[in-house]
Amino acid sequence: MTDERTDEQMTPLVSPTPSDDASIDQEIQDLLAVDPSPEFEAKVRTRVATEAETSGWRFGWLPVAAGTAVVAVLVLAVIVSRPEPTMVDASPDPVSTAARTTDPIPPPALTPASPPEEVLTTGSLPSPQSAPESDAPRSASVSTVQRPTPNELAPTARSAPPPSIPATLPPGPPRFARIVISTGEATALRRLFAQVRAREVTVPAPADSPGPVAALESPAEILIPRLSIEPMTLALID
Amino acid sequence: MSILAERLTGFTDVDQEELAREFETRLVESSTLAFRVAYGVLRQREDAEDVAQEAFTKAHRSFRHLRDRTRFRAWLVRMTWRLALDRQRAERRRLARDIAHASETPADAAPQDGPAARFRAGELWRAIDALPDKYRVVVVLANMEGHGIDDVATLLGVPPGTVKSRLFHARRRLKELLR
After folding, report:
1. Could you say which DSSP state residue A208 is in?
2. Which residues of chain B register pLDDT less than 50?
3. Which residue in B123, B154, B140 sits closest to B41, CA to CA?
4. Given B4, B53, B125, which is nearest A44 (Cβ)?
5. CATH of the domain at B171
């Protein structure tokens, strides 16, 4: 459109005082009648395509970012909701409590004459089916402990205070560190300690132990030669 | 992954192809309009094309919401106008002297135009630049592509009465400035 203008068409523009709106509008229309270059639309297409590729790359990362966020949230939820490990101190009769208390724990009834219901060996609890039930006398090397019946354990369990973990240590003598141990093992150890303390169970010594402390032999007489100290002479110093 | 991306972006392949076709149609029918709007502010062909390209790029990003032809053209005109004003203000700070010179002698004046025609064109541009933005955009839009009052009102998203009032005041100011 601009190229189609001629000097004759531009003649009205040089009128010094355009008075009417039509002439001003016509002049402005001529000014704005400029077309873009022929390659303008191609430039736009190229630019839009480039922008779309960048946008597609950005959207391609969107699912990855969303998945990462979901996994992070799940991991965080698992960590937050995971329960803290239970401590034996909260169990009815933990070993630590038995070890540091001075109250005597009533030993369970030990009936050597009568056959035990179950024999506990090496601290592991065999299944009831595998437990020997013979009346043969036990070997001296095996600790025989009669497992108390539930009726015997019930009063102890009922008398135990409810599990509670103090927020702060009470004043007094230093306390032992808490020991995390299973309840069954704690019960067995507590029972063993009580019986050993009451000398009702003989704990055999290990095979490689030196045995009871032997009487110290009187040391042989040690002869120390007499030392003689002589004063130094000036000749030796020189 | 592509299904997930489609669900997240809300686009399918069919939608993309259809959108691409519609955008191509809008580009062909609106490219001159966008260019002239930018040219009405910048009066530099290269700058006007660059601004119009930027406006089309932005339009393409939001084209899913601009599929209606009327809405697209109105959005494109307003976006181009704002981008052109931003470009002009930035250029004015950097090239204040050159802009002043260009307002007197438009760079894109036809070679066959004589000195008197270029002088008159410079006067007109200077008068248009002196108008407030709300008058300026009305004058520019009303004098391109045969736009009427209703067309300008639709493009600007204002009532026709507002366009008529602004056009009246703009013409009066132009007459005063050109007297």
Report:
1. T
2. 1-2
3. B140
4. B53
5. 1.10.10.10
Q: Would you call B117 and A51 a contact, using CB atoms and an 8 Å cutoff?
A: no
| C-alpha pair distances (Å), A65 with each of A60, A72, B178 | 9, 10, 60
What pLDDT score was predicted for residue A119?
Answer: 41
Burial pattern A25-55, b for ≥16 Cβ within 10 A else e, equals bbbbebbbbbebeeebbebbbebbeebeeee
Residues of chain B neighbouring A39 (CB-CB closer than 8 A): none
CB pairs under 8 A between A and B: 116
Name the residue facing A35 among B32, B121, B140 (closest C-beta). B32
Q: Does residue B155 lie within any of the structural domains? A: yes
ipTM of the complex: 0.77
Chain A hits for B60, CB-CB cut-off 8 Å, are 48, 51-52
Question: Domain of B137?
Answer: 131-179
Are B143 and B74 members of one domain?
no
For testing the chain A interface, which of B2, B177, B178 should be mutated: the one with the most A CBs within 10 Å?
B178
Residues B5 and B75 in one domain: yes
Per residue in B137-172, pLDDT tens?
A: 999 999 998 899 999 999 999 999 999 999 999 999
Q: Which residues of B touch A14 (CB under 8 A)?
A: 116-117, 119-120
CB contact under 8 A, B49 and A40: yes
Q: Please state the domain count of chain B.
A: 2
Is the Cα dihedral B24, B29, B33, B36 positive or negative? positive
Whether residue A37 and residue B45 make contact (CB cut-off 8 A), yes or no, is yes
Other CB atoms within 10 Å distance of the CB of residue A129: 5
Verify that B1 and B81 share a domain, yes or no.
yes
Chain-chain contact of B31 with A34 (C-beta, under 8 angstroms): no
CATH number for B72: 1.10.1740
Report the alpha-carbon angle A172-A177-A180, nearest 5.
140
Q: Would B113 be classed as within a structural domain?
A: no
- Closest in B112, B171, B175 to A7, CB measured: B112
* Cα–Cα distance measured from residue A164 to residue B9, given in angstroms and rounded to the nearest whole number: 54
Chain A partners within 8 Å of B135 (Cβ): none
Q: Residue B70: inside a domain, yes or no? A: yes
